Amino acid sequence: MGLEEQTLEKTGDRCEVCGAKLTADELQVALESAGPALCTVHAAEVVLDEDAPEAVEAD
Prior knowledge:
The chain is mostly helical. The protein has a domain at 13-51. The protein contains 2 helices and no strands. It has helices spanning 24-33, 40-51. It is globular and about 45 Å long.
């Protein structure tokens, strides 16, 4: 039996951070992005973190 790439067709119905039940829209976003299943609040936090400037070390 060989290994084949499988696509993600189903995700959990709860936020991976807080456990809140996800709406249909939130589930759709998780499936389309192939990312973690997150509620709107925690998905917004991820976007905010990506927008934050990188810390620069002073020499």
